[in-house]
Structure formats: structure tokens, C-alpha cells
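# nightly structure sweep
# worker-07 picked up a monomer target from the shared queue
# config: single-sequence mode, recycle default, output format = C-alpha cells
# input follows
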Amino acid sequence: MDSSDPRSRRRAARHAAYGVLATLVGLAAAHLVAALTVPAASPVLAVGSTVIDLTPTPLKEWAIRQFGTADKVVLVGSVTVVVLLLAAVAGIVAARRPTAGLLVVVGLAVVAGALAVLRPGAGPLDVVPALVAAVAASASLAWLHRLDDRSPQGPSAQTDGPTRRGVLVASGGLAAAAVTMGALGRWVTSYRLGGTDVALPAAGDPAPAFPRGLEETYDGITPLRTPAGEFYRVDTRLTLPAVDAGSWTLTIDGDVEQEVTLTFDELAAMPTIERDITLTCVSNEVGGPYVGGARWLGVPLADVLARAGIDGTGADQILSTDVDGMTISTPLDVALDGRDAMLAIGMNGGPLPREHGFPVRMVVPGLYGFVSACKWISRMTLTTYDAQQAYWTERDWVVDAPIKLSSRIDTPRPLSESPAGKVVVGGVAWAQHVGIEKVEVRIDGEAWQPARLGPQVNDDYWRQWFFEWDAEPGQHFLSCRATNKDGEVQTPVRMRPFPEGSSGVQEIAVTVR
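# output follows
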């Protein structure tokens, strides 16, 4: 049929809509089944997770820079759009070749099912959502096409005959079913996640009293303690693991004297420490937002490993595995060198939020998260870097990643305008496990001037700072740099996050009126 014919174009659009609607029904049904079985096996999430794993590191870093913590939403949205475009093509093909169109729809589900079962730690149930998607989508598409073939095709097609009404009723019913199943799937997922209300022990070794931060005096400076709800989150998860503290266990194996498995209650019954520690993501650009300070409650990592016996081990790494198979490697010597490395069970006075690793995560001061901060941890294997590689090591990130000395301007904001006169320039600086000695500010490339430091929490925590600037009208450029307690000055050499973290001095432009 001539594609320039208006009737032909309308027919193609109608059948494309059938393909999209049928696929939405399949995705909604699969999402509901996944919510009841394995949430991460939902077709769009399975495809999205594979895209994350296969995406080259430079492209991942670009996505984080462009979209920040919304990168996952953008990814899922992009995958969904591509799937629906292919579904529209399937609908058009099915109008002329029903079997071929149905095969396209089934093929999309087969791809999603294959990717789901290839995920680390996948089981037989992981393929079920894709099978449901294939059946629901193909059945819906076949039904709509049969009704359409029986509807009037000539001038009478403009009238509401019985079959035409049947197509409309069927389409409305399928749309309602898709919405209902999608909403129910979201509710089931939320219900399965449940709360994080667990009884935490009092800290056997509590942290000192927390000081008042500069944010109480100077607007715009980052709060000294980051609320849990505002703490940065950068990981590969498209859906949060549904972990119940009552059934959670941690296994310690590998090059140990004996394999040990601990329950949450057994771990929480061990001597605990409470520490204020700043965490930083390796993806943080100079002046970036992926850094935060919190109070952590946990069990010293050395005490946990001692349960399995590690004296005389030939291991040089702890290969941590989360509940869904994600792996992170931590240098064993760093974890045991006396710093407050821990398995954390609490954050800012309460249980860990799910997005930050409930019920248990690893925290190691002074190391970027990709080599130290395994969330939802379920296994620690003592091994060597030669024998096993973790997720990020396989992607050519470094194996030993100490956090680089850095500082950031929080106020005034880049490209902002301020009235002439006294302007407070302020921000935070960090040198985890070493400590900040001083921060300096430079105006328009002139000499560095000392800033005033905020309260000292400890050497594993960031430091607030401020500088009172007598600002004159015009455009100005502001820079900051830090010096740690070893006398090391923050390097001006610019470096991107890959493969060992960013470096350089932040400089911002502001206007004074």
C-alpha cells in the first residue's frame, strides 16, 4: 500500500500504537512479577544494568557529570524509549505479517530474559518476568490486530460500528491493566523493601561530642554533618536490594583459617565503635558534590576478620560481594593498619538507609568508595589481586585509591552576583586520614591568602573554612586550595576522575555589583 496515502499513514500509526500498548502491558506485567520474585530481573532494569556494565568508562563519567544522581533515571528512560520505538515497529510489521511482528515483540523479551539470567548471582526465577512479558505483550498485540482486521475499513470506518467500539474498549482495557499492574508492582516493591527499623546497640566506643558547624553563622557553607537523606549516592544499582536484617548473613571465606558466617544480631553484638568519617566518590570532579560527612556506628573490620583467622594469610585484598553479586576490592593492609575501618550498621544515629547499604556496609576512611565502601555486603573473601578481580578493577580503575587532598568553594556560587562590600567566601576541604592544616583563597590570580578554619572533628573528617573578602564591583575569579597536616599542598595539576580520582584547584567566576 502506498505510504503517501493518508489512509495508509493512519493505519500505520494505529498499528504502531498497538505495538506500543501491547509492549507496555508486557512490561507492566513483567514488573509486577519481578516485584514478587526478583525486582532486578524486571526487563527494563535487566537491560539497563547490562548497559551500565558495558558502557565505556569515559561515557559513564560523562553521564555522571551531565546528569548527576539522575543518571539512573535518564538511563531507564532511554532504555524504555528505545524498547517502545522497537515495539512501534513491531506493530507496523504485524499489520502486514502478523507472525513477524509477534516475533519482534517476543525477541525483545528474549533479549531481556537472557540479560537477566546472565547477571551475577542470577537464579532460575530471573527469567520468569521476561517470559511473562513475552506472553502478555504478544497476546495483547495479536488480540488488537484481530479486532482491527474485523473493523470497518472503508467510509464506514469513520462510524462507531460494534467492532470499532471493540477496538477502543480493548485498548482502554489494556491501558488500564498496564497502569494497574505497574502501580501494583511499585507498591509490592516498596512493601518488600519495608522499613529499616532494627535495634542498634549503644556504641561501646562512642565518638566525641559533635561541634557546631560554620553553616549556623555563614549561609551557603555545606553543613558540617550531612543528613542521611542528602548524602550523595553513586552506584550501579537501578533498584535497591530488598534485604531483611533478620535473614541477612555475612560470610568470611577464602584464605582464612576457618569460614565464618555471621547474622546481623551476631555482628551487632560484637564490640562497636562510633566515628565521624567523610566519604568521597572517585567520580567527584574538582569542586563536585559527591562527598559527605556522617557519623557511623559499626564493628571494627579487623575484629570481624579475626573471627575467621587471618594470621599468616597470603592474601592482599578483601574481595567484598554484595547481596546481588557486585564485587569491590579493598587492600588488606589498608583495612588493618589501625584506621577506623568498619562494617557499619548505623548512620547519623539511626540504622543505615536502604540506599546507603542497609543492613550492613563497609566504611574505610581515606579510600575512595569504589575500593572500600561495599554496600549491602554479604561476603568477604580474602584473596589476591592476581587471583581475582573486582568489578571496577576489571574496568581498569586503580586497585589502591587513597582520597586526594581537595577543597571546594560552596559560597558564593559560580556565576552568581553579590553586592559590593564584605562577601564571605566559604566551603569545605578534606584530606581523609591525614587532616587539614590550612586553606587559602586567591582572588583574581593574586597572592594566596589564609582562610579561617571551622571546628576540627578529626583527621578522617572534612573541615569547613571561610574567608572575608572586601569585594569591589566587576567580574572576579576565586580559587581555593588546601594543605594537609603532612605539609602537602593541593596540586594545581588538573586530572579527570578516571582512573584514580580527580585533582586540580577549583576556580569560579562571580560578579560583584
